[in-house]
Amino acid sequence: MKRMHLRPRLPDWLREMGPGDLRADLMAGLTNAAVVLPQGIAFAIIAGLPPEYGLYTSMISAAVAALLGSSMVMVSGATTALSALLFSTISNLAPLGSATYINFVLVTTILVGVFQLAAGVTRLGRLVSFVSHSVLVGFTAVAAILIGISQISGAAGIEVTPGGTVVERLFRVGENIGAYNPAALSIAAVTLAVLILFAKFAPRAPGFIIALCAGTGFAWAIGGPAQGVAMIPPLSAPLPEFTLPDFSFANISLLAPGAAAIALLGLLEAITIGRSFAFRRGEGFDPNREIMGQGTSNLIGGLFQCYASSGSFTRSGVNFEAGARTPLAAVIASAVMGLLLVFFSPAITYIPYPAIAGLILYVSWRLIQFSEIKHILESSPSESVVLGMTVGAGLMISLESSVYAGVIASFAGFLWQSARPEVVVTVPTTMENGRRKFRNARAHGLPECPQLVTLRLDGPLYFGSVEHVEAAIRRIEAARRHHPHVIMVLKGGGSIDLAGA
After folding, report:
1. Are 188 and 354 in contact (CB under 8 A)?
2. Are 361 and 156 in contact, with CB atoms under 8 Å apart?
3. Among 74, 89, 196, 443, fewest CB within 10 Å belongs to which?
4. SS (H, E, C) 198-266
5. Are residues 423 and 360 in the same domain?
6. What per-residue confidence (pLDDT) applies to 111?
């Protein structure tokens, strides 16, 4: 009898890492830590929470999801959609920022983790196959546009009411653009220009960090704070602590419906983002493993003062563009953030918001896959419709609705095509190799038999296609009234249901 050695098995990516991978992940992690500071604060405010909760979420939840998930470059954390959904779910139940509100948030986050783990155990990750490539491309484009527009106000130094659709956000920016701050705009421009130059002429250099330093240095050289340039506020929060929220039956009953909706949206975001970056990198992606990673990160995060998290397009885009190769980059970013909070929190206040906005504007532009959009529009009318529905819903309604609209459009297109299988007249003919084969009579100009009509069905014969198939047969029959015999070839018909039979 063999002895079993129960030893923890290291992830494949960790066992296969080389020095080059470690250097790339270190640079990407440092860059991501710098970018996530203002983002985490902003998202926490959107969720109605103190700023430190956004930073905790970007540390604890991100590290757990990176270690246990499937994506090599996706970074999890606080997101716009989940922050807004959490706010709308709990803001009517308790005063914002109160102890009760925070307790409800933590209970909801743990419930989100439980629901997501249940989805992973039941292997619902296979549902991701219903999200087509065109939907991913459209969702990525809308997310990039949303991220870019959300950063225009920070780059221009103007105050804009948050929230709303992409069109509404853009309209509000246009209304207030006349009040822009020249100093803020110049800081964002310098940061963006330095980043573009390094990306083009020195792609191996840590361009994001250099550009952020250049923007920060330029801001202080021109006296940015004195000219009204917004800086990162001082952070006085300690590191997150273990907190067990009030898990009474009343609280669970009150918060479970909202937690289920947040869990669903979070999984949809994470799987869509993870699969999108896996496609761009030519890697495999296991949706069920990602579901388990997201569920565990929310379950653990809810016990350490984090709120509901998912894959972050902004952080993932920065991670990808900064050259990350493995999930270690996200873990390094979390560790660096912890060190910054403990030792260097006063130095964080020297970073200007417009410099961060310049970095994120570059990331949002790079996320749009222009070549893929062109390829879809030129090659497939049906997929072009799916792409258009995805982008249109994302621009006019909301980011999460873009995926729903794209999936519905994909299903509608599939049903339309499956309900219209091809019925053609075929005749036997001799091929060049001497073999006999049935071929399309009309397409190849072949003479038909005057006594026998052979019909070939290419597509499923089920209740949805019966009417179309019957009409096609009747048309062929009407054109060949003197043919006494008909043979139906069902080799290409696939499955047949009762209505088809």
Report:
1. yes
2. no
3. 443
4. HHHHCCCCCHHHHHHHHHHHHHHHCCCHHHCCCECCCCCCCCCCCCCCCCCHHHHHHHHHHHHHHHHHH
5. no
6. 96
Domains held by the chain: number: 2
For residue 420, the tally of other CB atoms under 10 A from its CB is: 15
Enumerate the H helices of 243-369 as residue ranges: 249-281, 287-302, 313-321, 328-343, 345-348, 353-367
Phi, psi (rounded to 5 degrees) for 457: -105, 120
Q: What are phi and psi of 494, to 5 degrees?
A: 65, -140
Name the strand (E) or helix (H) holding 453. Answer: strand 452-458
Give yes or no: residues 427 and 352 share one domain.
no
Element spanning 117, H or E: helix 99-121
Which structural domain, as residue segments, surrounds residue 33?
A: 15-371
Total residues belonging to the chain: 501
Question: Could you give the 3-state DSSP secondary structure of residue 85?
Answer: helix
Q: Can you give the pLDDT at residue 2? A: 47
- Looking at the structure, tell me whether residues 175 and 282 fall in a common domain: yes
Which residues in the chain land under pLDDT 70?
1-11, 125-130, 162-163, 235-237, 399-400
| Pair 130, 198 in one domain | yes
Are 118 and 263 a contacting pair, CB within 8 Å? no
pLDDT at position 422 is 85
The pairing of strands 485-489 and 452-458 is: parallel
Domain annotation covers residue 401: no
> Same domain, yes or no, for 366 and 435?
no
DSSP state of 126: G
* End residue of a domain, out of 371, 393, 411: 371
Strand ranges in 20-117 using DSSP code E only, listed in sequence order = 75-77
b/e per residue, 26-35, with b = 16+ CB within 10 A?
bbbbbbbbbb
365 with 439, same domain? Answer: no
Give me the residue label for tokens 């130095």: 347
Choosing from 371, 397, 431, the residue where a domain stops is 371
Tokens 């019925």 identify what position? 423
